Amino acid sequence: MVATSTLKTKSNECISDLVDRRYDQACIEKELDFWDYCLAEPPRNADVAEHRTCQQLAKMFENCLSRAKKTTLHCSSVLVPEKLTRRIAREVLRLASCEPCGLRGCVLYVHLELDKGCKRLERIVYDATVVPTFELTLVFKQDGTAWPSLRDFFFMGTCFAPTFRHVLKLSPGFRLIKKKLYSSSAGTVVEEC
């Protein structure tokens, strides 16, 4: 039996036709119930796996920012807009979806755009067992509209070490640059979000 959206399940005409062919009516009704269920509720395994991967990616970005706060950025904290890392993760998954190895073939370079240029934060390889097929460069942007806090003015020139900085606030915008590694004719894709 083939299930299509035009099949009128449980119609007397359909069942009597199958009974005439010596099919068991109870078996036919169970089969039709099964297909009714399948058509009403499509399998969501792919959605669950994609959601889980998206969450893992978002967590990787948050961990990257946390490590960079202590090592590269030398600031007390980094303020990240709500859902920014999830938005970035969805965009990364979208860009990886048309690649031969998908996300597993990705090398991700994370940068932060500051007033004086870009600062490299980290290099992330999603799956080190796979030869990379493409590179993504993620550029976080600093929120330039934020007013410095009064506390930052008090800290300037005081007893704190010169490497101590203020709170860094990220903008909700970001840039993703995709570069294919397996094709010489493929160009670079720049997406501003």
What does this entry look like structurally?
It comes from Seriola lalandi dorsalis. Keywords: Cytoplasm. One of its GO terms (biological process) is negative regulation of signal transduction. InterPro entries: RTP801-like, RTP801-like_C_sf. The chain is α/β, with parallel strands linked by helices. The protein has a single domain, classed as RTP801-like (Ribosomal Protein L22, Chain A, Alpha-Beta Complex). Helix content is 37%, strand content 24%. It contains five helices and six strands, in the order H-H-H-E-H-E-E-E-H-E-E. The protein has helices at 12-20, 25-40, 45-71, 84-96, 150-155, and strands at 78-79, 106-114, 117-125, 134-142, 168-180, 188-192. Strands 1, 2, 3, 4, 5 and 6 form a six-stranded mixed sheet that branches. Helix 3 packs across helix 4. Mean pLDDT is 76; it is low at 1-9 and 154-162.
